[in-house]
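@channel sequence for tomorrow's demo:
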Amino acid sequence: MSELNSMTGFARATGAEGSHTWSWEVKSVNGKGLDVRCRMPSGFDEMEAAARAAVSKRFKRGNINLTLSLALDESGIGYRINKDLLDHLIDTAKTFEAGDNVFDPPRIDGLLGVRGVVEAVDEVADEAEMKALKKSILDSLSAAIDGLSEMRADEGARMKSVLAAHLDNIGALCGGAAEVAETQPESIERKLREQITELLQAEPALPEERLAQEVAILITRSDVREELDRLGAHLQAAGELLDGGGAVGRKLDFLCQEFTREANTICSKASDLELSRIGLELKSVVEQFREQVQNIE
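structure tokens (generated this afternoon):
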């Protein structure tokens, strides 16, 4: 049996190799489908496709933001001089004659202090070492994905109990509506007979057959048994989806629409205050159920 998973969660995983340390952060929120967005350090963009594929294998829905942060300790940092920029600065300085300004000619140590002249670089020995580093970083992504999956599953387990309680409430309201519906025809007939007594005193008197037809029509229009039967079927389907687990959020969302449709019909057909009250409460509980379902994968 699969778990019921939420779409919200956060996880972090770290790693180190040589002078490099890194961390993966993955955050997930609600989404209609699966949308994976990645942020990679400069020079590591080629890892994005593999990272997206790893996330897509584990999750079906949710907006997922994946961030890789990379750092070097001092032993792994080298420096190089941007010679083109330095030459440009020297040539520019030569255009000024010594007597044309009150400043001393620029010194090399001053030019080296200009932003961009001296650049910090990652001293990776060769291409094979960089390839191995990227593989280690990608391998550690699985720990972050596992952490996110576990958090989504834990949240899903808590939500399952909440959703099951809402379904129980809907079932109880349907039972109350069914009890009221059983007495509804008699109530309608009693009210109409009181009205009939007044109508029969009118001139000309209304035919009894016509009055009987009107009673039958009103009773038929007020009958909510079909709506309650469909609600019962939807309740059973929703319960089976909760027990089955997996990526059932879309199916549950569809059932919420069906719940709402039947609840609205019951309210429109209600001919007494008690059934109207039950119908309105039913709509409220269905809406609470729907709000929770929006977070199910």
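heads up for whoever presents: The chain has a mean pLDDT of 83.
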